[in-house]
Every structure is written in C-alpha cells, then in structure tokens.
Automatic annotation (TrEMBL):
Transmembrane segments: none annotated. This is Thiamine pyrimidine synthase. GO terms for molecular function: metal ion binding; transferase activity. It comes from the Bacteria. Signal peptide: none annotated. Keywords: Iron, Metal-binding, Pyridoxal phosphate, Thiamine biosynthesis, Transferase. Pathway: Cofactor biosynthesis; thiamine diphosphate biosynthesis. It comes from Rhizobium loti (Mesorhizobium loti). It catalyses: N(6)-(pyridoxal phosphate)-L-lysyl-[4-amino-5-hydroxymethyl-2-methylpyrimidine phosphate synthase] + L-histidyl-[4-amino-5-hydroxymethyl-2-methylpyrimidine phosphate synthase] + 2 Fe(3+) + 4 H2O = L-lysyl-[4-amino-5-hydroxymethyl-2-methylpyrimidine phosphate synthase] + (2S)-2-amino-5-hydroxy-4-oxopentanoyl-[4-amino-5-hydroxymethyl-2-methylpyrimidine phosphate synthase] + 4-amino-2-methyl-5-(phosphooxymethyl)pyrimidine + 3-oxopropanoate + 2 Fe(2+) + 2 H(+).
Length: 390
C-alpha cells in the first residue's frame, strides 16, 4: 500500500500531511489553519489533477476504469494523479474542499457530511448507479429483513461509515437508534466478523470477491438487489465548475473515465489485467477468476440500467432526492437538500462524447494472458449473487 505517500500539493501548501490530518480530525479546515498562501497555490489551473480514494488504498479493483483508460491512452496529454489518501472515511471530501486534491469519490453518506459541514462541493459524475453497499453475515446468520438487526452490532472499518449504514438501514424500516456500531478498523473489520465479533459488517460489491480471496466467506444482504439509494460519486469544488478552463479540463478527464468504464464493460478480463499490472501483490492474492468476479460485481453497479441513463456518470436525481430526504428524516443533515443544487449532469454529454466502436475495438483487441483467456465470463456472471441470503 502507498498510504504514506503525501498528496502532491502538500508541499505547495506549506504543510505536512501529518499536520493536515491533525487539523482536519475535528472537521472542517479553515483558511487560517492552512495558511492563506496554501490556498492561493491551488487557485491556478490544474498543474496535476489529483483524484483521491475513499478507502485508504489503491490496491483494489474498484478503480479499474482509471487504470484501463490510462493504459489505453484515453486521458491524452492530461496530467493526472491518483492517490490512496488516509483511511479516514471523510478524507476524500476534506482534501478536495481545502485544495489538497481535485476530485474525491465519496459515498452519498460522506458527501452528506461535506454538505452538512459547509463544504462547497458538487457531484459531477455518478459512478454508483446502483447501491453498492451490502451487509455481511456469518454463514447461516443472515437475514432478508434488516429490522432483525435492531439490538444487534454492526462492524465498520471507519466510524465515518455510519453515514453510509444509517440511511441504508432507515430506508429498510430499521430504527437506527436500536443498532450499535463498532469501529473494527481498516482493513480488519471483515476479519473481526469472521472471528465472532459483531453480528454483521458493512461491505460492498467488488469487496465480496476480495474477501473470499482472504478466506472470508460470508452471506450477504445485497443493496444491488434491495436498495434504491445511490452509491459513490465523483465530487469537485463547486467553484471549479465556474472556471471555463477547469470545466473543459473536467470534461476531458471524465471522458477518460467514461471510456475506461466502456472498456471494462466490453472486456472485463482485460480491465482486470490492467489493474493487476499496476499491483502485482493484488494479482497474486486474487488471481484471474476472483479478480474477474470482483470487477463484474462493480460493472453491475457502475452501469446500472443504462437504457434509462444518459450515459456513464449520469445522476438519477429522483434517487438522489430520495436519499437526501431520508437522511433529513434521521437527522444526518439538519436542513433540506435539493439534489439539483449539489449534483449536476452538465458534464455528462461531453464525458460520453467518444467513439464507442473504437473503445470496443481496443478492448476486443487485447491479447489476454492464458489464465484470463481460459475463464468463462458468462458462467461467472451467472453466479455473481450466489452468496445472497437465501
């Protein structure tokens, strides 16, 4: 893992990341705390555009569109960077808010944390068209009715993930005041569940396959089958959308991601290989079959019902409004939020303005290694949800 690497603009801002994290641990960072010169350093056009992960690591398959696009040259001459960030669940919005990164990938719950704390961020590319989140149970202890979790304990990797789990449960009729959470740590919360701690653990698509590779074999209540809530999205500073040069850059940048998504849809095995080339340890731990299983789970989330979408990354405003209404009811935010005020589809037409036939030809033209070529993708697809609670 490259967790200790500093975000690229830390030096420009004149602070170490250790100091930055000490400052932000309590919430929003002020200009005074950072120093005015640090903020001015980020006011210029993007020198290097930095995307920051929400999970404290890049050694996962979740970011396959980026690695596929980068390998295929879909970002062109854009100077892009991708960073793991710290495992604090809210870092992905905090870093963007203060100019330490340019784009974050928060869950809707963490995005709501940003809104509640006055961060002027906007969602510009909705990756998770279906709800990626799930609840893992030890075999034979799962439930289809989440109200059964009242009085029980749910394990989280970060305390910030409660902002994910509360609305998920509340939307299913659960009295969240009757649920206990335990922060079991990243990346150990799944191991804690397997070891008999807690009654369930938060999980997500793609991670299910990775957990199997670690010997963690659970059964799941799956959000992709049961939830209408949105999932993770790309957010930027709202002010960047008012800058014509930055907006044009964002359109080109998101086009690269959209082309990477299309590439993965057309040839998921080639997309897995693009990630494995970056992270040999991940390749060794997962292998071709589980790697392909993981990416197919995520493609299902990222693609959603494309017949009803205006392209990769488009927001379903009704789904987002339902989410904001739900979290207002449970007190996760204290004032109503209008989805159109914090989410925009303005960049989606340009992001999807690419030659799909060329991307398909690129994907189909990849020569797969022997292990991947031998896989039956349709067979894997047929068993994607075998671990769902029966």
């Amino acid at each position: 893992m490259t967790n200790e690497n500093p975000i690229h603009s830390s030096a420009a801002a004149g602070i170490s990341r250790r100091y930055f994290l000490q400052v932000t641990a309590a919430g929003v960072v002020t200009a005074t705390a950072l120093g005015a010169s640090g903020l001015k350093a980020r006011a210029a056009a993007y020198e290097k555009f930095t995307w920051i992960s929400p999970r404290g690591t890049l050694e996962v398959l979740d970011d396959y569109p980026y690695w596929s696009a980068k390998k295929a040259g879909y970002f062109g001459d854009l100077n892009t960077d991708i960073q793991p960030g710290p495992s604090d669940g809210t870092a992905t919005v905090k870093f963007v808010d203060v100019g330490q990164a340019d784009m974050g990938f928060p869950s809707p719950g963490v995005f709501s944390f940003a809104i509640q704390n006055g961060m002027k961020l906007k969602s510009v590319f909705h990756m998770g068209a279906r709800d990626t989140f799930s609840l893992a149970f030890r075999k034979g202890q799962g439930t289809k009715n989440l109200k059964d979790l009242e009085g029980k304990t749910i394990l989280l990797g970060s305390a910030a993930w409660q902002a994910i789990t509360d609305p998920l449960l509340a939307a299913q009729g659960v009295d969240i005041k009757k649920v206990k959470y335990v922060e079991a740590g990243w990346p150990t919360w799944g191991t804690a569940l397997a070891g008999g701690q807690g009654d369930a653990a938060l999980s997500w698509e793609g991670l299910r396959a990775e957990w199997i590779a670690k010997g963690l074999d659970f059964e799941y209540w799956l959000g992709v089958q049961n939830s209408k809530l949105p999932a993770n999205t790309f957010v930027v500073r709202a002010a960047d959308l008012e800058d014509a040069d930055k907006k044009a850059f964002l359109e080109k940048y998101l086009r690269g991601w959209a082309m990477g998504l299309e590439f993965g849809y057309q040839n998921p095995r080639a997309a897995v290989e693009a990630v494995f080339e970056q992270f040999p340890t991940l390749a060794k731990n997962l292998g071709p079959e589980l790697g392909t299983t993981s990416i197919l789970q995520q493609i299902n989330v990222f693609r959603g019902d494309m017949d009803k979408r205006s392209g990769w990354g488009s927001h379903d405003m009704a789904s987002w409004q339902g989410f904001f209404d739900e979290i207002l009811k449970i007190g996760q935010i204290t004032a109503p939020v209008k989805a159109e005020d914090v989410c925009t589809n303005d960049l989606i037409p340009a992001a999807n303005d690419f030659d799909k036939a060329k991307v398909k030809a690129d994907a189909d033209g990849v020569k797969l290694s022997e292990g991947f070529a031998a896989l039956d993708v349709e067979k894997i697809k047929a068993h994607l949800f075998d671990s769902a609670v029966k």
